[in-house]
Amino acid sequence: MLKQVPDPPEGEPLLPLLVRFVLGPLVRALYRPQVEGVENIPEDGPVLLASNHRAALDTGVITFTTPRQVRFLGKAEYFTGKGIKGRFIAKSLDALGYVPVERGNAQAGLAALEAGRKVLTDGGVFAIYPEGTRSLDGRLHRGHTGVAALALSTGAKVVPVALFGTEGIQPNGAKIPRLAKIKVRFGEPLDFARYEGQDSSSAIRRSVTDEIMYAILELSGQEYVDTYHKRPDEKAS
């Protein structure tokens, strides 16, 4: 069961309010997602949601099943459209929690980490997919250490997340989302305060990442593969 939705905060822009308090309840009523462990999300302070990644619409599922506003990374070009349509899309993405980040250059990884770090140091909730891309084979793949870098540098609690059935909402080739049975399971928060001041250690970052991935594995029950999942364009090269 989801926690009771709080009253809309005064002074917040209209579009984010519509997303959180109108669109969110409508989506939950339509899909009726089964949500477990939502009480594991701390009510305040920085929180890093680390999730498996099954489908392109996973971000929306997490957004509408988490009681606090969640921020995600989004391609910067989505925010640069011109005219009324472009501005509306940019504002809608912002309301959904996306943070614009440039992709496809040498600084992309650093920019992504910095965007997440800012959300967390401001006391917000940031969500990340440690695998780096959605799983095309249904298995859980080795996590990239950016999740550990964020947790260690900000002191944020890490809440592992397991998504089930989201790949059925919009299967490959489907243009319109479909009804599907989905479930979201939030695990108990992981605290890495014992490694304070050691975020520059690659060995510590690897160890923390593996601990986070194991927690996701325990929640999801997926088969684990100790190799990074290549993106489709990487397989073709």
Helix/strand layout:
Blueprint: H1 14-31, E1 34-36, E2 47-51, H2 58-65, E3 70-75, H3 83-96, E4 98-101, H4 108-121, E5 125-128, E6 140-141, H5 146-154, E7 157-164, E8 183-186, H6 202-220, E9 224-225, H7 232-236
Parallel strand pairs: 1-8, 2-5, 2-7, 3-4, 3-5, 6-9
Antiparallel strand pairs: 7-8
Helix pairs in contact: 1-3, 4-5, 5-6
Keywords: Acyltransferase, Transferase
Protein name: 1-acyl-sn-glycerol-3-phosphate acyltransferase
InterPro entries: Plipid/glycerol_acylTrfase
Structure explained in plain terms:
This is 1-acyl-sn-glycerol-3-phosphate acyltransferase. Helix content is 37%, strand content 16%. The longest helix has 19 residues, at 202-220. The strands form two sheets. Strands 1-8-7-2-5-3-4 form a seven-stranded mixed beta sheet, sandwiched between helices. A two-stranded parallel sheet has the order 6-9. The protein has 237 residues and is α/β, with parallel strands linked by helices. It has one domain (15-23, 33-170, 181-225). The radius of gyration is 17 Å and the shape is globular. Strand 3 (70-75), helix 3 (83-96) and strand 4 form a beta-alpha-beta unit.
Notable features of this structure?
237 residues, alpha/beta, seven-stranded mixed β-sheet, two-stranded parallel ribbon, 16% strand, globular, disordered N terminus, 1-acyl-sn-glycerol-3-phosphate acyltransferase, Plipid/glycerol_acylTrfase, acyltransferase, transferase
* Largest beta-sheet characterization: 7 strands, mixed
Shape estimate: globular
Order of helices and strands: HEEHEHEHEEHEEHEH
What is the domain tally? 1
Radius of gyration over C-alpha positions, nearest whole angstrom: 17 Å
GO biological process, one term: phosphatidic acid biosynthetic process
Organism: Amycolatopsis echigonensis
GO molecular function: 1-acylglycerol-3-phosphate O-acyltransferase activity
Keywords: Acyltransferase, Transferase
